[in-house]
């Protein structure tokens, strides 16, 4: 149990590190953005621009890879006339440092959000989270006033997910709670939840459990045949997403 207590980051986060001079290759135009944190670490992200943007989707990606791979999802959002900003967490991609606490994680995404508000008005910003990014995305939406919160394959809480995946691991030992259910209760913005019915990592019942914590008008959408990965490329998701975004405009 001591190993679990002190090396949880290795169990939860699987970053792809990039060199500082790494050259990204995407078919779309993008801008590299660096975000300073209060402890002097620089975070890195990519901003993809739509031709006629209605606003911005601030996207918190999953626990593996970096913006080098996650950048491939950009067209799904720019085609719907939204700019997309992808943030790499500490230790991912070109972001410095390493993740060491839940609080630090929350402070970092808030720092990125604050910088984005220098470019976009807050009522133009949509917060989105995928997989591990859903808890921090929900936290961010609960303490700010974004236009909309999108959650893809969310967990009820990280403790609940771990109990489902590893029943022998006591949830109280987790240093990362990521209690999505508490944050959505405090979120004033409209919420849309998307979950694949065939998700083999985060069980679909997580989103079913979240329903009880959502407000009237929030949506939970289950996608037939969708596993944990590849949701952004799923035409069924893209259709549902377009309807959600149109309703929010």
From TrEMBL:
Q: Which domain of life is it from?
A: Bacteria
Q: What organism is listed for this UniProt entry?
A: Pontibacter diazotrophicus
Annotated ranges, domain Serine aminopeptidase S33: 52-165
Q: Which InterPro entries match?
A: AB_hydrolase_fold, Hydrolase_4
Q: Which Gene3D superfamilies match?
A: alpha/beta hydrolase
Q: State the name under which the record lists this protein.
A: Alpha/beta fold hydrolase
Molecular function GO labels: hydrolase activity
**Sorted UniProt keywords:** Hydrolase
Keyword Hydrolase assigned = yes
- What's a Pfam family in this record? Hydrolase_4
């Amino acid at each position: 149990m001591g190993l679990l207590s002190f090396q949880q980051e290795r169990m939860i986060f699987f970053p792809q590190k990039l060199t500082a001079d790494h050259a990204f290759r995407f078919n779309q135009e993008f801008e590299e953005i660096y975000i300073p944190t209060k402890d002097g670490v620089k975070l890195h992200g990519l901003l993809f621009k739509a031709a006629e943007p209605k606003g911005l989707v601030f996207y918190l990606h999953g626990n593996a890879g970096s913006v080098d791979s996650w950048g491939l999802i950009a067209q799904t959002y720019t085609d719907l006339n939204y700019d997309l900003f992808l943030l790499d967490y500490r230790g991912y991609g070109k972001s410095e440092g390493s993740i060491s606490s839940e609080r630090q994680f929350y402070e970092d995404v808030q720092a990125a959000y604050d910088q984005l508000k220098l470019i976009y008005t807050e009522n133009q910003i949509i917060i989105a989270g995928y997989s591990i990014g859903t808890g921090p995305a929900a936290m961010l939406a609960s303490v700010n006033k974004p236009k909309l919160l999108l959650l893809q394959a969310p967990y009820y809480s990280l403790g609940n997910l771990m109990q489902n995946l590893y029943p022998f691991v006591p949830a109280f030992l987790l240093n990362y709670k990521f209690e999505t259910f508490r944050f959505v209760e405090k979120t004033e913005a409209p919420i849309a939840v998307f979950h694949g019915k065939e998700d083999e990592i985060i069980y679909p019942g997580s989103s079913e459990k979240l329903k009880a914590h959502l407000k009237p008008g929030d949506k939970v959408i289950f996608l037939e045949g969708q596993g944990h990965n590849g949701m952004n490329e799923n035409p069924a998701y893209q259709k549902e997403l377009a309807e959600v975004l149109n309703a929010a405009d």
